[in-house]
Amino acid sequence: xxxxxxxxxxxxxxxxxxxxxxxxxxxxxxxxxxxxxxxxxxxxxxxxxxxxxxxxxxxxxxxxxxxxxxxxxxxxxxxxxxxxxxxxxxxxxxxxxxxxxxxxxxxxxxxxxxxxxxxxxxxxxxxxxxxxxxxxxxxxxxxxxxxxxxxxxxxxxxxxxxxxxxxxxxxxxxxxxxxxxxxxxx
Length: 186
Description:
- This protein has 2 domains: 7-101, Immunoglobulin-like (Sandwich); 104-185, no CATH class.
- The chain is of the alpha+beta class.
- Helix content is 36%, strand content 22%.
- The strands form 2 sheets. Strands 4-3-6-7 form a 4-stranded antiparallel beta sheet.
- The chain has 4 helices and 7 strands.
């Protein structure tokens, strides 16, 4: 059986960590001598790190060279990350992946969603707010899909659009203060 390399980026549900798991199939006759992953975070230089095969690898801003060691409380930037996974012996071709990290915008989206008081809004405002949030979510997921298909320019454009829409939604909120409910229904 030939070695087939693959890695999966798994959600950590934290803006502080990046989780990558080895999903490769290895030739049992050729042991892996050394596994390496190269990661290029958006706006930073490539960093080459040892990679644990058949394992879950967790990276922080310090391990990715974004902050100094001991400063793991800094969030990793959202954006397109480039990954290259390779092993020794070198006869196996390395694999390259492009992913869009969205943890920070997802946290902002979740906060906006949780602040929306759906019980006090009138029906028209509630429907509009739901549609706006669905549209923002669609743009976020479109950015992820574009990055996963190496369409980096489009991924960044979609992410920026989603972020602007979300900021606008947060600033304008849904117009719900509870006053409409008190005036019209009590």
